[in-house]
Amino acid sequence: RKGIDLILQTLQEKSIPDSVKLVIAGNKKVEHPRVINIGFVDDMPSLYSMVDATILASSYEPFGLVVTESILCGTPVIMSKVVGATEVVKKEFSYLFDLNAESLADEINRFLSERYNLVPSCSEAFHSYNDVKEHCMELLHLAGVEVSGVGNG
Question: Is residue 1 classed as helix, strand or coil in its secondary structure?
Fold first, then answer.
């Protein structure tokens, strides 16, 4: 579900430079020439800060806390369009791909071409919702529900 097979398949694409490596934290080892298994990590903020980008290739992810953790550590995110966190992260702070190797490779390469021009600013990365009522109205509108005569609550 987390998309490791898709990421490994994408690393085999000819357009991905050989210098691109995948660092995996966790106890489950992944055998692949481009994978660096580092085991369990207590200090994830330090890890996020050390890598160039975080990839979340989930085929199903209701939110994806790793997205906000990564961005708050100043690290851009390359994520599948099905990750729920796409709703709160501004487009200029993330790289979104369809669930296929070609689309992921395109976004990795776009990131590689832009990475030295990125200026991560955590305070500007997320959409702000200062008015809960306005936010709920926007969500209802997106869902195709027209609301009229809304009271004060």
Answer: coil
